[in-house]
From TrEMBL:
Record's signal peptide: 1-23
Highest classification ranks of the organism: Eukaryota, Metazoa, Chordata, Craniata, Vertebrata
InterPro entries documented for this protein: OTOR, SH3-like_dom_sf, SH3_domain
Residue intervals of the SH3 domain: 42-114
UniProt protein name: SH3 domain-containing protein
Key word Nuclease present: no
Keywords per UniProt: SH3 domain, Signal
SUPFAM superfamilies: SH3-domain (SSF50044)
Species of provenance: Pangasianodon hypophthalmus
Single GO biological process annotation from the record: cartilage condensation
Length: 132
């Protein structure tokens, strides 16, 4: 019994150490999303920003006109709400934003190349809208 209590304490401590202090679950933007795989880890397409976009909160990323974006998922709109895609920017000129994945309005970009024609639709989760 003593060994199992130690393991439980160790697991709880590990979780506490890696739980972000400022983490916030934000309002869901959609109940469904389209991805290339069940983890949304493969790039669906590439897009180019048509205009600048300033992120409204930590779920979103900033875009600059002409910037290239890898698209990982596409949210399905609810009740006529805006259509948002998730992705990250790439290119040498935008090193400060590379690797940051966030949402952006799909009407601010032009999809330039499709990498995955076969996609799957699935439910979103609370973690899809987690802000750190």
């Amino acid at each position: 019994m003593e060994k199992s209590n130690f393991l439980l304490l160790l697991i709880l401590s590990f979780g506490y150490l890696f739980h972000p202090a400022n983490a916030v679950f934000m309002e869901k933007l959609a109940d469904r999303k389209i991805c290339a795989d069940k983890y949304c880890s493969y790039v669906i397409s590439a897009a180019q920003a048509l205009e600048d976009y300033i992120a409204s909160d930590c779920r979103f990323i900033n875009l600059k006109k002409g910037q290239m974006i890898y698209v990982y998922s596409k949210l399905k709109p609810v009740d006529g709400a805006g259509v948002f895609w998730s992705g990250n920017v790439y290119g040498e000129r935008y090193v400060d934003q590379m690797g940051i994945i966030g949402y952006f309005p799909s009407n601010h970009v032009n999809e330039t190349q499709i990498f995955m024609k076969k996609t799957i639709e699935m439910a979103t989760t609370e973690m899809d809208f987690f802000c750190n």
